[in-house]
Amino acid sequence: MSRAAFPRQDQRTLADDGNELRFCSTCAFSQACMDEGMDKASLGDLHVLVEHVGPFHAGEYIFREGDPFEAIAAVRAGTVKTSVVDRDGHEHVLGFHLPGEVIGLNAIDGDRYPCDAVALDTVMLCRFSFPKISVLATRLPGLQRQLFRLLSRDIGRAALLAGDWSADQRMAAFLLGVSRRLAARGFSPNRFQLTMPRTDIANYLRLAPETVSRVLRRFQEEGLLRVERRELELLDRDALDALAAPVLRD
Amino acid sequence: MSRAAFPRQDQRTLADDGNELRFCSTCAFSQACMDEGMDKASLGDLHVLVEHVGPFHAGEYIFREGDPFEAIAAVRAGTVKTSVVDRDGHEHVLGFHLPGEVIGLNAIDGDRYPCDAVALDTVMLCRFSFPKISVLATRLPGLQRQLFRLLSRDIGRAALLAGDWSADQRMAAFLLGVSRRLAARGFSPNRFQLTMPRTDIANYLRLAPETVSRVLRRFQEEGLLRVERRELELLDRDALDALAAPVLRD
DNA sequence: CGCGCCCTTGACCGGATTCAATATGCGTGG
DNA sequence: CCACGCATATTGAATCCGGTCAAGGGCGCG
Fold it and tell me: By CB distance 3.0 to 4.6 Å, which of A71, A153, B59, B74 could disulfide with B126?
């Protein structure tokens, strides 16, 4: 179980190619750090730590539970699923990570990854060596604040799973969540792909796959959305918002 | 909403009375710090920060959501309920805090308490000024470690609410949890009081109050326990353990 | 073409909620 | 002391939501 995480196929480091800096500025991570008021010199320090890795193809593991924790990574393209397997062999999906989002943060208090991360489609990553970034964080309050914020945001997202919400509420909250996160990165908020299979959505929402199917069909009958296989279009945001409100608020 | 938290009625500071030090060493907090290997001098520093406050009577608020975060506190006697009220006015019980346990920790990343804390019976507290304790923590790694450990423990306890456990499993896990926590402070693990009303238990476990009643009655019929009003006796720990196992493990 | 995977759909079942009625304690005031 | 009122608990009956089981459909790929 001590295989190296983030295998380095096709990696290109920033040091090799100045153009990469501009390209990597699409990373949510760097952007957020700038929003936090980090100056350009600090941002330069940060970018030196970056490696671009990938592509990973659907089904490929990015890291596995128990792998030594060496780096966090920002998703540049594609979708990453994180999950754990309990002692009975059942998978529990922890979350989906869209372009611009960071994986590996929940390993921050240990020296091993506490979950699996697997690509759902073709995934490109920006890899940040964690030892280096944490040293840097001691010098840069803005960076540290950003790390803590990302951490607490992940924790807060668990509200979707806690609470005894109905299948409709869970599904509405999930779809709106994906929509908003995509919109925050410049993608269309109303038309997008569900890159994960129904079974993963169901597992994540703690529903049966059949229930996911039925809820989506009913939402479509009621004119809330249009869905065909993994293609999705949100038609009535207000209605979905109303459903999801108690889940997402407070 | 800017009323002062932890009103100081009946408070006696350590500085006023040397005897209080011995008494307060019953606080879980200090004990845990000693377990962490803190030396006596450091423990002395810690005890100087302590104020004994109380009593609070059943129904009295210890702090309210939005109050400025000034202190954490260890419960010396009684039970404290923490909860939030959503925008629809519905209460959500976050947890119950038994003697030896710490309240206020979840305010640690903000400057306001994020929840209400209310006494369920007659409550006595040890109050620790947070600004002072956090300064102290920078000097004492053992103290800092203890703070983080308490934090993560609280987060982990949410496992009881997540997951789609049956009413029986939730109830068994809840009862065993209370039993173990009481036992850890020297109380009888098999005979104790449920100091909270059924509605609060139900709310916490996300069940209907009627379901709580029925499950307890059935547990009694099956010989797992004896319950009369709020008096409880666990009779078949093994059976309860078996029920609670999947909830508490992993 | 045929196999496998993912998704859908229907019928049925069961656990938990909901609604409604009743019981039990406890404090208050007559 | 008892009567009363209120909050808390219990119990029963009806209902509903979501899970399970089983079958069938669409699509990609060898």
Answer: B74
| Nearest residue of B to residue A86, measured between CA atoms | B250
- Nucleotides, chain C, CB distance < 7 Å: 6-11, 15-20, 25
CATH label of the domain that carries residue B76: 2.60.120.10
Which residue of A152, A206, A249 is in closest CB contact with B87?
A249
Using an 8 Å CB-CB cutoff, list chain A residues near B158: 158, 162
Contact B110/A at CB under 8 A: no
Q: Say yes or no: Cβ of A214 under 7 A from any atom of strand C.
A: yes
- Structure token digits, residue A211: 């229930």
Kindly report each contact of residues B149-156 with a partner whose C-beta sits within 8 Å and lies 24 or more positions away, as own/partner: B149/B32, B150/B32, B150/B102, B150/B105, B151/B105, B151/B106, B151/B108, B152/A109, B154/B95, B154/B105, B154/B106, B155/A155
| A246 part of contact set with chain B, CB < 8 Å | yes
Identify the CA nearest to A171 among candidates A248, A119, A231.
Answer: A248
A162 and B CB contact within 8 Å: yes
Q: Which of A117, A139, A158 is the last residue of a domain?
A: A158
- Domain of A139, in residue numbers: 12-158
Residue at A7 is within a domain: no
Q: How far apart are CA A63 and CA A110, in angstroms?
A: 15
Q: Are residues B132 and B222 in the same domain?
A: no
B206·A86 Cβ contact <8 A:
no
In whole angstroms, what is the distance from residue B14 CA to residue B48 CA? 6
Q: Using DSSP bridges, classify how beta strands B102-103 and B71-77 pair: parallel, antiparallel or unpaired.
A: antiparallel
State which of A237-241, B29-33, B132-136 shows the largest mean pLDDT.
A237-241
| Amino acid A202: pLDDT | 96
Do residue A87 and residue B162 have CB atoms under 8 angstroms apart? no
Residue B4 at interface with chain A, using a CB cutoff of 8 Å: no
Contact B109 A152 (CB under 8 A): yes
- Kindly report the average pLDDT of chain B as a whole number: 80
pLDDT tens figures, A95-122:
999 998 888 877 776 788 888 999 999 9
Concatenate the DSSP letters of all residues of B229-248 into one string.
Answer: TTEEEE--HHHHHHHHHHHH
Assess whether A49 and A120 both reside in one domain. Answer: yes
In this predicted structure, what is the pLDDT of residue B70? Answer: 87
Residue A243 has pLDDT above 70, yes or no: yes
Q: Residue at minimal CA–C1' distance from D10?
A: B213
Residue A19 has pLDDT above 70, yes or no: no
**For the ranges A148-157, A159-168, B166-175, which has the lowest average pLDDT?**
A148-157
Distance A88 CA to D2 C1' (A): 62
The answer to whether B52 touches B11, Cβ cutoff 8 Å, is yes
Q: Beta carbon of B211 within 7 Å of strand C?
A: yes
Q: Are residues A171 and A110 in the same domain?
A: no
**Which chain A residues 139-178 have CB under 7 A to strand C?**
164
